[in-house]
Amino acid sequence: MEMAGTVVMIVGAGRGIGRAAAEMFADAGADLVLASRNEAELSELEWKLERKGASVASVPTDATDAASVTRLVAEAERRFGRIDTLIYAAGIGVLKPFAETTEEEFQRLMLTNVGGAFNICKAVLPLMEKQKHGRIIALPGILGRAPMAQAAAYCASKYALTGMLKSIALEYKRAGVGVSLLHLGGVNSTFWDSITMRVQRDKMLTVTAAARAVFFAATQEGEGVLNEIVLQPESHQL
């Protein structure tokens, strides 16, 4: 079990890529801190992973609420004493023409996709700095690297996430903290359940393939850091 003794925090663990990654890390022997707004999904996942022998702390968390995030990190430190790897897999999507996008939708995208990551990093980085090591993995997706029509507000949130984390990487590299950004193409997850845009979900990446990329970024040996990964479906390569 290659990650035995490693503490991995996954924000957005209740479903999709976060959930699939949690199962992979559990199989590899990692200790897990799982966070999600959906308490029922979180409890079910904790039960499933503990039955497989994993050590799991699940904490219902709203990443957009700084006090909620503070409680999450405090519980992680109380239970395991440290956080080696942080995975920010939370996020929401709005894909529609710019003229039809409301201010409320724009603000909600920025609050969750960027503000949530800001709160989590603010809470976790002091601990990683004290440890003198840590890794942050975020999923800005391909729209945090390349624009797309009918995605102006969503792209804005993802480009902001990319910029913020690249700046964090520069500030904290001497503290032993590495940052990896995963620019994934379309992933066939529950993300698309509420999207009205017509897409071919059967040609997208699977959730398992996306989670493998997360696991790959987290398990690089030595001092190397995968700063950015671009993973696209075969049918839609850059």
Which range does the strand content fall in?
A: 15-25%
Please tally the β strands and state the result: 7
Overall CATH class: Alpha Beta
| Count of runs of 4 or more consecutive helical residues | 6
Please summarize the sheet with the most strands.
7 strands, parallel
CATH topology: Rossmann fold
Q: Helix- and strand-based class?
A: alpha/beta
- What does the radius of gyration come to? 17 Å
Query: Low-confidence runs (pLDDT<50, min 5 residues)?
Result: none
Helix percentage range? 40-55%
CATH superfamily caption: NAD(P)-binding Rossmann-like Domain
- Silhouette: globular
- Measured distance between first and last alpha carbons: 35 Å
CATH architecture: 3-Layer(aba) Sandwich
* Arrangement of strands in the largest sheet: 3-2-1-4-5-6-7
Number of domains: 1
Mean pLDDT: 90
The SSE string, one letter per element, is: EHEHEHEHEHEHE
